[in-house]
Design a protein that fits this description.
By secondary structure, the protein is an alpha/beta fold. The protein contains eight helices and 21 strands.
């Protein structure tokens, strides 16, 4: 955000604090304007040359023009600001920041859109139009080497495809379509699993319906339709942080809400008396069952979080929640408050919904004690955090 000569605030993507820039106003409102960056006249010391030729045109990355320490600083300030502005916290705890070990080549899963000609691409910034790409610097090396070899002819009904990388560079190609028409698709001479996902379910076209991803010395079975953190090294760091900061003992009942394939549950289960998982996705529930099959004291509810929390009391000592970008919502927060756990861990991928839910949690008697930012998505504005709450 800067100021025009008349003092009006103007928002300029890809400009940095302290810079003097020439811009073109693209949208004029009563109290502010939006503009496009034309030229940097006086550059910030934090400005760097973007690595990707598509940066600024592609909607995937937002911060490649900033050096990595500046990205982390900006994300920490944004997280603090959201807690102050949305949650109404005057003095939130300081944000502990954990940088990604890799600034690029960190994604174990990447999704492509298809052009009309069947070429792999991404959507343009602030648009739903797809353009064919020549490069991308975010995926792990095995994915980066493979996507360039995939020559996809236009396939009726297929809107997107994804590549996922697991242990020993095991790869899975996922084709997504809105129709249920079977596909005649194969990749010759490539050791890769191929799964076609439709509203009616998944069909394995080659190889297996799952891969294995290793975190903290433990392998996790992950099916094509299941969610898993895209930055494997940072997922391990998050697990380590939770295990070090959540008080645990072998007499406790712990709930893992939105438990997915069991990333946190697998490490919590050996340390507690009873663990309860809640997950709505059938595929993720199947994976959870496989990943925690060794434990007899684990229960899994395949249902929505608000339904289970609002209907059954588990007397938990601790609850961990890892909701999607939409956050918890009012009814889920109500259910958490009713369960009465003294300790709550909130894994968030959106500071705005975290701020909204934080206000509700505070109204329900919870106090924010500690918060950490884990940069799972370098070069982008996405912010992952883990906050620790105590109930008075």
């Amino acid at each position: 955000m800067g100021r025009l000569p008349d003092g009006m605030a103007v928002f300029v993507p890809f400009a940095l604090p302290g810079e003097l820039v020439r811009l073109k106003v693209s949208e004029q409102k009563e109290h502010y304007a939006r503009a496009e960056l034309v030229e940097v006249l006086e550059a910030s010391a934090q400005r760097v040359t973007p690595r990707c030729a598509h940066f600024g045109y592609c909607g995937g990355c937002h911060y490649q023009h900033m050096d990595y320490p500046a990205q982390l600083e900006a994300k920490g300030m944004i997280l603090q600001e959201q807690l102050q502005r949305i949650a109404g916290m005057q003095h939130p705890p300081p944000v502990e920041i954990f940088a990604s070990p890799h600034e690029y080549t960190y994604r174990n899963h990447i999704q492509f859109h298809l052009t009309r000609e069947g070429r792999l691409g991404f959507q343009k910034a602030r648009s739903n139009q797809t353009f064919a790409i020549r490069e991308c610097h975010l995926p792990e090396p095995a994915i980066d080497q493979t996507w360039r070899l995939i020559d996809v002819e236009p396939i009726p009904g297929v809107e997107r495809l994804s590549l996922r990388c697991g242990m020993a560079d095991e790869l899975m190609l996922i084709l997504e379509s809105s129709g249920t028409q079977p596909l005649d698709f194969s990749i010759e001479e490539m050791p890769i699993s191929v799964v076609h996902q439709t509203p009616a379910g998944s069909l394995v076209l080659a190889g297996s319906d799952h891969i294995y991803i290793e975190v903290g010395g433990r392998s996790f079975l992950v099916s094509a339709g299941s969610f898993f953190q895209v930055n494997t090294l940072q997922a391990a760091a998050m697990v380590t942080h939770v295990m070090a900061n959540l008080p645990l003992n072998d007499n406790m009942t712990v709930m893992d809400v939105y438990c997915g394939v069991g990333l946190f549950s697998a490490f919590l289960a050996p340390r507690v008396k009873s663990l309860v998982g809640i997950e709505l996705s059938p595929e993720a529930c199947n994976d959870f069952t496989a990943n925690l099959d060794e434990f007899d004291h684990v229960a899994l509810y395949e249902a929505s979080a608000e339904d289970v929390l609002g209907s059954t009391h588990f007397n938990p000592e601790a609850i961990l929640v890892d909701p999607p970008r939409e956050g918890l919502g009012a009814k889920t927060v109500e259910g958490i408050v009713v369960q009465g756990a003294l300790n709550l861990v909130y894994v968030s991928c959106d500071p705005a919904t975290l701020g909204r839910d934080a206000r509700r949690l505070a109204e329900g008697g919870y106090t924010l004690q500690k918060i950490a930012l884990f940069d799972l998505f370098p070069q982008t504005y996405h912010i992952e955090s883990i906050s620790y709450w105590g109930k008075t």
